[in-house]
Design brief:
This protein has six helices and ten strands, in the order H-E-E-E-E-H-E-H-H-E-E-E-H-E-E-H. The strands form two sheets. Strands 3, 4, 5, 6, 7, 8, 9 and 10 form an eight-stranded mixed beta sheet that branches. A two-stranded antiparallel ribbon has the order 1-2. A hairpin with a 2-residue loop joins strand 6 and strand 7. The relative contact order is 0.20. The protein is of the alpha+beta class. Helix content is about 30%, strand content about 30%.
């Protein structure tokens, strides 16, 4: 029988600041960009505390004509075709195919219990959001959509759909990934409900309520720790 990571094990590692990369779990504290190092801050959303505001409710109403389905993920030509369209319009580096993004080179089997949210306009798949299921949590892995429908804010819409699905399944947490201190590229992950979002402290192993002040303090501690461990250069 193919190996599947138990849901409780995935919950545990997500709560320790780990995340999925292909068929592995990893964590990191830094993101290099343009010859600079930025600190990484993992996020989770406390689902019982989520209350959608006017912008979120407006987006749900605006996209109500789409049909939505959640089903177990199986890699298909339809998903790959949509991802290929999406990839052509990206302004950042990303895996060229879903297979490359999600699977190891030597296997088509996934060790994660993965599901997908489908968004359709009639029969046309216009957006899809992939997430992994734990026992008490879900982890959002990737959202992608048809460029012709970008005015519908489908990436943000998929975040709301994943949260709503997780609430229906009586999960406790939704893990959307990370933000980066001083680099706003990933700040959209805060959009769904800032008041219900927590930021992982990699030293205390706690999840304080998110604020940029909290993130700044965490960032300073990470940098100070890194500098203390690096020590003086061998050339000094």
């Amino acid at each position: 029988m193919p190996l599947i990571i138990p849901g409780a094990a995935l919950d545990y590692y997500l709560a320790q600041g780990y995340y999925r990369m292909r068929q592995d779990l990893f964590t990191c504290q830094f993101l290099p960009h343009d010859d600079q190092l930025y600190t990484v801050h993992w996020l989770r959303v406390v689902l019982r505390d989520v209350q959608f505001g006017p912008k979120q409710r407006h987006l749900l109403r605006r996209n109500a004509a789409f049909s939505v389905a959640v089903r177990p993920f199986r890699l298909t030509a339809e998903y790959e075709a949509l991802y290929s369209l999406y990839h052509q319009f990206l302004d950042f580096e990303a895996a060229e195919t879903l297979a490359e993004l999600l699977l190891a080179d030597d296997t088509a089997h996934s060790v994660f219990n993965t599901e997908i949210v489908e968004v359709r306009a009639g029969d046309l798949l216009v957006a899809a959001g992939i997430f992994d299921q734990g026992t008490d949590s879900i982890a959002g892995i990737v959202n992608f959509y048809h460029p012709a429908y970008r005015q519908h804010s489908l990436g943000k819409y998929l975040m709301l759909l994943k949260i709503a699905h997780a609430q229906q399944q009586q999960k406790t947490y939704y893990y959307p990934g990370y933000v980066v201190h001083g680099y706003p590229k990933f700040d959209y992950k805060l959009w769904a409900c800032l008041a219900a979002t927590e930021a992982f402290d990699c030293y205390s192993r706690q999840w304080p309520l998110f604020s940029w002040e909290v993130v700044a303090q965490q960032s300073a501690a990470i940098v100070a720790d890194w500098l203390s461990r690096e020590g003086p250069s061998s050339e000094d």
